[in-house]
Amino acid sequence: MTARVRETAVPGRLLVCMLLLVLTTVGWRRGTYFTGSVDPVVAAKGLLSVAALVLAYFGTRRVALRLGTGTLWALGLLLAASVLGALTHGPLVAGGVIAVRVTIVALTVVLLLRCYTGTQFFAALAWSSAGIGGVAAVSGLPSLSSGRLAGGFPQLAPNELALLACLVVLYAAWRIALGASGVPMAGIAVVALGVLWFTGSRTALLMLVPALVIMALHVRRARVGLVVSGLLLAAAATVAALSTDALTAFLERDGDGTSTVESRFIAWDAATTWADDNWQLFFGGGMSVKIIPVKGQYWDEQPLDSSWVSLLVQVGLVGLLVASAWALWTVRGALRAPRESRALFLGALVFLLGRSVLESGLFDATPDFLAFLAISLLAEGGSRRRLAEQPPESGAGPALPARRPRPAALTG
Question: Could you tell me which of 171, 242, 233, 202 has the C-alpha nearest to residue 10?
């Protein structure tokens, strides 16, 4: 990677669309799951998501960049399996509404990527995550008294807030590695890391480290300042970990270091015997199934804290196989992407797929779904050529097609 890259400008339309997308894909109420009933929060999120879709649609009238369609087939099969499962499980309305919501989010991402470059898209995603996450973190500072930082407005759960912080760190690290950003972007990354630490999200932090290592391995000629800063930061972190109990306290988190993992195993075991018949086994019960009954415990039900276990319950074995093939296909495409794009794609996939093992939401209307879907669309064969033709550092605005010269007027 070279140092010729300049900072990316984010067009206003794209930033507004992305703000609406992130705002409608984060939780507004902690511990509440959609069951099919419409209330002011559900209606507001629906209207904002439609507004983002309309705004993105009018943007594509200016330009239409090359974009593959294989990702949409995979997503369509996944959503179709969820609707088939909801037909027999019962919550058809709730499952159908969530499938429509995911479709609207996916179409908005597709339209944006047909109008703007991948770098512009991820820049907008990072800035939107920073803005919404920053407001949530500042307004949620009183929650620190309970041990973990959560969002105040909107009411993000600690793990959701950590996800937004990690998206900011991943983008900042990528731009710094490219040589496109300096001290200001590094400062934003440090603040985001601080938010991540105070959320107490161990899964996010543990998966962020290998993601950053993947990005660092793509640096060909590291700048002296980048190397020195990295070594100083690593040394400071090592000293802090060895001389204090901060890292131990973070991992144990008030004594629940293994209890949360053990409780996940209980829900995962219940998911393997959840289906009542072969139809539910193959097609699940719909995207609205977020909580599963458990037996032999002093509690009766528990959330499904894993994207892959959630898929087994929501879309069955058929959907689980489709999603697994989709993820492997995306990784394959990322490996074939141009070097600069590959650094971001692989780093983000390591984080997103690793986090999805213990956290749910990768295949739902969530911020991590926005990132995964965009990477999948850009990394497939129908889109990769545009990454080479249109370098990721080009950030002056949406690429417009070249105009054909008008024919000279005939004179008689």
Answer: 171
